[in-house]
Design goal:
Layout (H helix, E strand, L loop, with lengths): L11 H19 L10 H9 L5 H16 L6 H12 L1
């Protein structure tokens, strides 16, 4: 079976389309906007009024991190189910 390619000049529109796509990419890169976040005064007040973490809480958090890292942390499924049940009632 022979394959013959006739009229290779028809490939030109494809190249034109590719160039248009490349132009759009560079145009989009120039007009890209950045995200901004604004925190309301109420939220800033809430953050400022937060109590600093106690030494006991920091110690407990570190213990939990160590247990998770070592693979010894176990989830008490019954405790979770009880809390969920109270929430879902």
């Amino acid at each position: 079976m022979d394959l013959k390619i006739i009229e290779t000049g028809r490939i030109q529109p494809v190249h034109t389309y590719q160039k248009q796509g490349e132009a759009r990419v560079t145009e989009n890169a120039r007009t890209r906007k950045t995200d901004q976040v604004q925190i309301s005064e109420e939220a800033q007040a809430m953050l400022a009024s937060r109590q600093p973490e106690s030494a006991e809480r920091k110690q407990r958090i570190q213990e939990l991190k160590n247990e998770v890292a070592s693979g010894t942390y176990r989830v008490d499924a019954e405790k979770i189910a009880d809390k969920l049940w109270d929430f879902l009632k």
